[in-house]
């Protein structure tokens, strides 16, 4: 089963479905260099690491308590952030206000 998905610099990629039914063991997703604007992580997924592309306009994270590493290629296009997790240790939004 797929555990790591690295799509770095696949510029033709504009959408992605990370439905946990199709990728139940997926732990790492690297999307930097793509043109994906919206990424919704599956509720309660096993993801531990995700790298978002500069094209990201909308971020949705729901009940993904295993996430340990979240990186953004850029925040320039980000318009919407929706985080609904019971356990969020620290989330620094100072970089969002540039």
Short characterization:
This protein has strands at residues 4-6, 28-30, 38-40, 49-52, 58-62, 69-72, 80-84.
Number of helical stretches of at least 4 residues = 0
- Overall geometry: globular
Weakly predicted, low-confidence segments: none
DSSP strand count? 7
The helix/strand class is: mainly beta
Rg, nearest Å: 13 Å
First-residue to last-residue Cα separation: 40 Å
What is the mean pLDDT?
84
Order of helix and strand elements from N to C terminus? EEEEEEE
Helix content: under 10%
Strand content: 25-35%
Spatial arrangement of strands, main beta sheet? 1-2-4-6
How is the biggest beta sheet arranged?
Answer: 4 strands, parallel
Walkthrough of the structure:
This protein is mainly β. Helix content is 0%, strand content 28%. The chain has no helices and 7 strands. The chain has strands spanning 4-6, 28-30, 38-40, 49-52, 58-62, 69-72, 80-84. The strands form 2 sheets. The chain has a 4-stranded parallel β-sheet, with no helix packed on it. It starts with a strand and ends in a 14-residue tail after the last strand.
